[in-house]
Amino acid sequence: MKVxxxxxxxxxxxxLVLPQLEAVIAEGGEAIGISAPxxxxxxxxxxxxxxxxxxxSTRGMNPLADLRAAGxxxxxxxxEHLDILHTHNxxxxxxxxxxxxxxxxxxxxxTVHGLYATPDDPWWKRAVVYGLETVASRFSDAELVQSAxxxxxxxxxxxxxxxxxxxxxxxxDLTRFDPSRFTDADLAKVRRELCxxxxxxxxxxxxxxxxEKGYPxxxxxxxxxxxxxxxxxxxxxxPEKADALPRGLIDRAKRxxxxxLGMRTDVDRLYAAMDIFVLASHRxxxxxxxxxxxxxxxxxxxxxxxxxxxVVEDQTNGLLVPVRxxxxxxxAIEKLGEDAELRHRLGERGRARAVERFDERKVVDIVMDTYxxxxxxxxxxxxxxxxxxxLRPATVDDAAALAKMHSIAIDTGFLPTLGPGFMRQLYRTLxxxxxxxxxxxxxxxxxxxxxxxxxxxxxxxxxxxxRRGIAAGIAALxxxxxxxxxxxxxxxxxxxxxxxxxxxELLSMAVDERYRGRGLGYRLGLSFLEAMKDADHVxxxxxxTNTVAINAYHKMGFMDADEVEVHAGERSVVLVWQV
Length: 579
Description:
By secondary structure, the chain is α/β, with parallel strands linked by helices. 44% of the residues lie in helices and 20% in strands. It is built from 23 helices and 20 strands. A 7-stranded parallel sheet has the order 3-2-1-4-5-6-7, sandwiched between helices. Strands 10-9-8-11-12-13 form a 6-stranded parallel sheet, with helices on both faces. Helix 6 links the parallel strand 5 and strand 6. It is globular and about 75 Å long.
């Protein structure tokens, strides 16, 4: 499976669709990102994603550059021989769908991040945007729509064939954007870095510095709030856009006390320190920054527009204000600033809503399932790949798939919190270790289950640190800055033989959700034990509350042996199998 995602610029590949690209790799496919070249290409390629540049692609209104970009894409499509082209953003979404179909790409999918016209826009703008979408959607196989309001409009106006439409929603990494990751000391450190006193109310906004994000109204609202309120704005300049904030406006805002932080990759730390998050946008598709803030338990004030209404339910988990209304915006900020109990209540409800609705893993699952549905409908077996399942030894090419499956199926464990890069390093080491047994279940196109273990756990972890410690440490470094995570990492890697005199261990086992209930886990477990029979005894450590897994291991012949605490305060059961 060779899948390319097409966006305008590389930052969109990195921050909007990276999990979707990684999912392709995890299922054994080749993932390609197509966009203008930029500073995020190196990070994409480090994740195993090949980047193909469209030098003429631009965010601004430039018809000649757009024509050149379309010509560059045409040449790429005739060179790459893709199975799937997945388009994003207004301009590449239009010419990408048309050229993808004309170039003979078997499957063309488009994501509607937000229609470039809303019901409040002038009729001529709506006519142009809806007309272009109507034409372009006839060249795709599926239209994934993030906003429920956009989906209803597309259906009502017949802009796209109903059979192609599917609600995608939007999501963020809930393990990264989790307030429990940050201690009071972490929050205090961030506020000291920002020179914000404990008695002050920290108000934050995250987004590109363009007028469409509502910055002019936010600056006006901030002027009347007084010294107790501090406003920070995190986001890059966007000079290509016609509504880029003028330098004079930014300078005036700075003189009034607004602090501009530029592009930040540590927005999770910033959210953790905020008292209030504000998104004053004039137009949104499905705002990622508002989802991130809500997931971090920060009360959100947003404008009452499409997209924002899907994140914020007024007076329940945040506040909605009229668009372009600086007075109402200032009043809402002041209201929350004066009521700590209300901020706490709205923040808690925002986090609960994010956990329920904004998990990016669900979005990825819908995308991958859409590929398979279209492939089945069109009879493209190389993408569908739902053949008979066979067991085989894992190869190094399977490492990404195993890492992803572990993170999804065993998401309550500690190791996935160290990030996908760390997990890939771990599984590469396991697969290449002569003292390990790693088996996968393969349906002919992708891995749908696996089991992994070693003959001596302590010895393996020592080899892992020696062979890949530096690379794994760099991959996990963003997660290891917190003392609590560093402590749990130390507890994991000093763990050498919990469970008496049994060094051999089944470390992990997982089965794709679509293949559960077919006895595949049982097959994997028995095959693993057969391969490990020279060890005489094999243990497995399972969370004490995970009764489903415990019962499954009992069925394979494991017996209860002990209770331990690999991590302080977390009870686990040790089960042992004997030849």
